[in-house]
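Re-run requested by the PI after the first attempt was lost when the workstation crashed. Everything re-entered from the original request form. Ligand of interest: pyridoxal-5'-phosphate.
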Amino acid sequence: MKKIPFNKPSLVGSELSYISDAISRGQLSGDGHYTKKCNALIETLTGAGKALLTHSCTAALEMAAILADLQPGDEVILPSFTFVSTANAVALRGAVPVFVDIDPETLNIDPAAAAAAITPRTKAIIAVHYAGVPAEMDALGELCDRHGLMLIEDAAQAMGSTYNGRPCGSLGALAAFSFHETKNIISGEGGALTINDPDLVVRAEIIREKGTNRSRFLRGQVDKYTWVDIGSSFLPGELVAAFLCGQLEQIETVNAHRLATFDLYNEAFSDLADSGRVRRPVVPGHCHANGHMFYLLLRDIDDRDAFIAQMREDGIATPFHYVPLHSSPAGKNLARAAGSMAVTDDISARLVRLPVYYGVMDETDRVINATRQYLERN
Ligand SMILES: Cc1ncc(COP(=O)(O)O)c(C=O)c1O
């Protein structure tokens, strides 16, 4: 029986010709023709003031943590239900990730829990747009304004999603995107930082260029290129940017395909959701999601594990997702939880993800039938 993977890298067709063109242009290091094209495309897609390509979302988050000027002992509020990179970026600055619970509907950071976790040491809030569904950015923005905090988006999964008509990537002072091969728009490994606070742009360029003012030097704005700040090598090479450029140009097609898959799954399990057997993702009316992920919430961890095992026997990969960071060894050492983590603990034990990738439409009948068979029998 043919196996159905959870993910297949989505190719749009122009990748090789763009890579070949990048080679013929003669610059393989970063910030050449294709990097600039990608930055401009991301600025158009997100409406952000400035976009800078990075080699991963992890790198973009690390840049954001430097730009937030985090000092040892400072605190940053974020959900525990996220990827390690969100918290690592904070911990790498010697600051303390403070985990709060998520909203049981959207699985995004709960603004009330975030408000309750603020202390005099709090410097920023990082909102993760889980499954490409935007977090409650208005409430979080008001909270940050009131307390003088920086609002950062972890938009790893949210390229093409909007909140009240405004694109993810334009909603915080800074936002980090991922182009890892599991995402909608990919370059194998890849990412971008978008910057909406104009005061942060020059420093962002410096941090990304190993702490040097190389970008200003190349624009003729300074006559010497020198070490001026901390930084690292956060930019990708031109071959990666060329691959990504073709992908970004096709975002509407790719996201439409993923949304069609999402709608198909959503419809296929509506009766089982109505009867209370499963719960499907919730996309609030004021949000538009990008079809990044389709998940189901099962009864409990035993139901979840039995489902994954049965699907594996049927040749279909349906993985669970984040293990809550507050319960991880590094989370216990380097971070702390503020308030109850009941929703995070409950949801993370019950969630499974169904295959969603460009081309999965040929396989969705098998996924739906196998899922329904399990749910109806158990
Ligand atoms: C919410 C979130 N943040 C950050 C990352 C890290 O992305 P990257 O692999 O591009 O560094 C991921 C990866 O899946 C993620 O889901």
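Saved to the shared folder this time. The chain has a mean pLDDT of 97.
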